[in-house]
Design brief:
Shape: extended
Strand order of the largest sheet: 1-2-3
Number of strands: 3
Largest sheet: 3 strands, antiparallel
Number of domains: 1
Structural class: alpha+beta
């Protein structure tokens, strides 16, 4: 019988959903990032943001999250405010 465990963890910066099933460990992206992506998708659906801009923001956001470089994070925040 497979034992399934679901919990929320705050490791690696941000709140994440952790699913454990026997020897398998699946960790979601931070919930804060998922909220950003869902909100951006909603704005595209409402026509507030065009798809190419949303894709550029999504790729930039994902790359900044992967690199953990403070300079790039500051640049990304400045671009988001513009």
């Amino acid at each position: 019988m497979t034992e399934l465990s679901v919990s929320i963890i705050t490791e690696h910066g941000g709140h994440r959903v952790l699913v454990l099933a026997d020897t398998t460990r699946v960790e979601s992206p931070p919930l804060e990032h998922l909220a950003f992506y869902v909100g951006l998708g909603g704005m595209v659906m409402l026509g507030l943001v065009e798809l190419p801009m949303a894709l550029a923001l999504t790729v930039g956001h994902a790359l900044i999250g992967l690199t953990h470089r403070p300079g790039l994070e500051a640049l990304g925040e400045a671009l988001e405010e513009a």
